[in-house]
Structure formats: structure tokens, C-alpha cells
Amino acid sequence: MIPDRNRLKELFKAAGQTYLGAHFSIAGGIHKALYTGQSYGCTAAQIFTKNATTWKERQLTDDDISEFRRAVADTGITRIAAHTSYLINLASPDREKRDRSRHALAEELIRADALGVPYVVHHPGAHMGSGMEKGVDLVAKEVNEIFYRHPERTPRLLLETTAGQGTGIGHRFEQLAAIIERIDAQDRVGICLDTCHIFAAGYDIRNENAYRETMAQFEAVLGMERLLFIHLNDSLKALGSRVDRHAHIGQGAIGPEGFRLIMTDPKLAGIPKVIETRKGSDKEDCDAANLARLLGLITAPA
Ligand SMILES: [Zn+2]
After folding, report:
1. How far is CA 83 from CA 160, 223, 240, in A?
2. By the 8 A CB rule, do 97 and 50 touch?
3. How far is the CA of 302 from the centre of ligand 1 (A)?
4. What is the pTM of this model?
5. Which burial class, exposed, middle or buried, applies to 114 when counting CB atoms under 10 A from its CB (0-12, 13-18, 19+)?
6. What SS3 class is residue 112?
7. What separation in Å is there between the alpha carbon of 131 and the centre of ligand 1?
8. 3-state secondary structure at position 157
9. For residue 1, how far is its CA from the centre of ligand 1 (angstroms)?
10. Ligand 1 center–CA 249 separation, angstroms
């Protein structure tokens, strides 16, 4: 049964201090996403700051900025990530596409900064056949270039773990570590871990032993201090399939135990977590169902 939003707010209260939310739509204004989050009782959120499927940049107006900042104050939701456009590929072997991508990523950072959003989540890119080593190099080079051109503090750029579809970079923790190693301003970057993506990439989290092993690898290769944001999605596809298809929490190939382990891991307690699962309709509020399932796992017996 899907809980109504008042019931969900009670679950959030009962869960104690947790930073949990969803990716919310900015239709009607970027600030709308936070009020939607508030209607569920959310304590974290993710947004796009433009139409993520086009190259067209969005010029924020003074109203966009003041309304968003007012929404942050009104809702108390401060753990917010802006997700970058899917078109950006810093690893493209095509110089022109790389220039365009670098420009677009800089604009993402500038918009997030204007809104006061602390994190920008970004997929590292795809090497398009030029090889992983070359791809890793190009991503680091372009990020360095952006940071040189914007020496002032920008929101933290979080590289997202990926499923490894096609020539995608970032499906092994070592690839992300190699990018970060080559970035000069390492305090300006971090990692966003996506449960669906790491699972599809071959990192198991379905039971306690597998979960501990995966987190130990993360800690050894990247370090827990780099983990600053988490995407909670179940996976429609099998372990190691390298196919990125999100499923509702507990209803995919990962299953509820993997999410219970994450929700109750004290090392991850302070890290904001958002779902990126299918929304459903007015009658079938999937965000409410998925968030309630996650909150229920915190108190569920092992
Ligand atoms: Zn994600």
C-alpha cells in the first residue's frame, strides 16, 4: 500500500536524522522541486538546473535565484545536488564536442553556485573507442581547465559511479580514482555512488558479506571521505550486466537487504541519499512508496 504524504512525514520524523529525498522536477520553476520534496517530508533533493536533454543553457534570472534560496530557507532542505546534462562528454575524442562539454559543465557549476546548491553530480563520460586510459586523462584535463578558469570556489563536483554501458568511464572504482588523482584541486571533487550503477557494474551489495566487500573496495580505492552523495536505485538488470535500468527500491535484482544495509550503515548516516526511480502517476505515487520502503528499512529487524 502506498502511504499518503502525511504518513510519510511521520516516517521521516521517526527515522531521526537522515538526509533522504528524491530527484524532483523543476517544471514551473526550480524552487518547485524543493516544495515538492517538503510535501513528502524529504531532507535531501536532487534537481536539474536546465533541460538536461538539450545543449541549450538556461540563464538564471534574479527571480529564479531568490525564489530558490527562499525555498531552501522555507523547506529546510539544504542537502541538494544538481545533476548535469546527459549530453556532456568530457572524454570525447572530438575536440569540438569536448570544448562544448567543458563549457556546458562550467555553466552547470555556475548555475548551481548561484542557487547555493553544494553538489553537482556528473557522469564522467564515454571514451567512444579511444580507450579507457585516454578517456580518464581527458576528463581530468577538462576538469582541471574548468577549475583554472574558475579559481573561485564552486560547488563540489561529484563524479558518479556508472554502470559501464558501452564505452562509459567510471564503472570501476579505479577509473574514478585515476581521474581524481590527475585533478589538481582534489578538494573540489568527490564521488556520488549510485547503487544501481555499481551493481550493474559488478559490485554486489545484496547481502552483508557482499556489501562489506564492496564498501571495503570503495574505501581502499577511493576513500570514504570522498563519498558525498548517494543515489538509491534498485536495478532491473543482473549483477555485472553493465546495463543501467533503475527499478523501484527492493523490487529489482538488488532487493531489500542491500538497501537495509545502506540505510543502517553508520558510515553512511550523514551522507545525503536520493532516489531516481520512476515517478508513477497521481494515483500511484511511486516516490512515496519508495521513500516509505527505505525509511521502513531503518527500523526493520535484520
Ligand atoms: Zn544516478
Report:
1. 10, 22, 25
2. no
3. 27
4. 0.97
5. middle
6. helix
7. 23
8. strand
9. 26
10. 13
Ligand 1 centroid to Cα of residue 194, in Å, is 5
How many Å lie between the centroid of ligand 1 and the Cα of residue 231?
5
Using the structure block, give the residue that is written with the C-alpha cell 521513500: 291
- With helix as H, strand as E and coil as C, how does 252-299 read? CCCCHHHHHHHHCCHHHCCCCEEECCCCECCCCEHHHHHHHHHHHHHH
Q: How far apart are the CA of 182 and the centre of ligand 1, in A?
A: 23
The model's pLDDT over 216-254, given as tens digits with 9 standing for 90+, comes to 999 999 999 999 999 999 999 999 999 999 999 999 999
Crossing angle (nearest 10°) for helices 62-75 and 32-40 = 10
- Going from the Cα of 276 to the center of ligand 1, the distance in angstroms, rounded, reads 7
CA 212 centroid distance within chain: 21
User: How far away, in angstroms, is 119 Cα from ligand 1 center?
Assistant: 13
Q: How many whole angstroms from 164 Cα to the centroid of ligand 1?
A: 13
Domains of the chain: 5-299 (3.20.20.150)
Please compute the mean of the pLDDT values over residues 128-147 and round it to a whole number.
98
**How many A from CA of 160 to the centre of ligand 1?**
7
CA gap 117, 123 in Å, rounded: 18
Cα 22 to Cα 16: distance, rounded to the nearest angstrom: 18
